[in-house]
Amino acid sequence: MINQRMQHLKSIIDKVKRNATSLSEVEAYEQQEAMIIREFLSHKLSSEQYEAKLNRLTHEPQRVICKTVEELKFVLDYLGVSEKEQQDLFEHEKAHFNEAKANGLQARFCLTFYRTASGFGLIPGTQVHATLLNTLSDDERRMGVRTSITAPKNMSEADMQMLL
Ligand SMILES: [Zn+2]
Question: Which of 10, 4, 21 is nearest to 112 (CA)?
Fold first, then answer.
């Protein structure tokens, strides 16, 4: 079962690399995502609307989604990302991921690929889902999303954008 999942991830990565487009196209998704989060945090979207909008972006063809830390590690190894780079990435993304889980929300690691002159580049991220499978109120979900965005010691530019 685990092997099947890993095989599936490999085939997704290969497809995503083949389909990779420019950085500017990928940045457009990132901006849309930040806007959806801002709208949710500022009460313009309900949890249900937030989930529906976020899920549409999740399935963009330039993205690989990892459900667990083990899957993310597998993907980064497969891509040949160095141990040092992995450590930095893990420290940051796991802070988002673990804080989301601690607040009763679901989190997914999200790797977005884009084409460069020498191959491809990668933007890592963590999506926090306002799962509807629990009894949290919309405001409790908003609080969980907010604290998971601010969880890493060094918030990124992209993280800050979500809170503007
Ligand atoms: Zn971040």
Answer: 21
Convert 24-34 to b/e letters by CB count within 10 Å (16 or more is b): eebeebbeebb
Note the pTM of the prediction, 2 decimals: 0.92
Strand duo 106-116 + 119-129: pairing: antiparallel
Domain that holds residue 44: 4-161
Q: How far is CA 75 from CA 66, 79, 91, 111, in A?
A: 8, 6, 16, 9
What's the CA-to-centroid distance between 70 and ligand 1, angstroms?
A: 19
Ligand 1 centroid from CA 17, angstroms:
23
The total number of structural domains in the chain stands at 1
d(CA 75, CA 23): 20
The arrangement of strands across the sheet holding 119-129 comes to 63-66, 106-116, 119-129
Distance, in Å, from the CA atom of 146 to the CA atom of 21, rounded to the nearest integer, reads 30
Kindly give the distance from the C-alpha atom of residue 158 to the centroid of ligand 1, in angstroms, as a whole number: 7
Rounded mean pLDDT for each run of 10 residues along the chain, 164 residues in total: 86 91 91 96 96 87 92 95 95 97 95 92 94 89 97 95 91
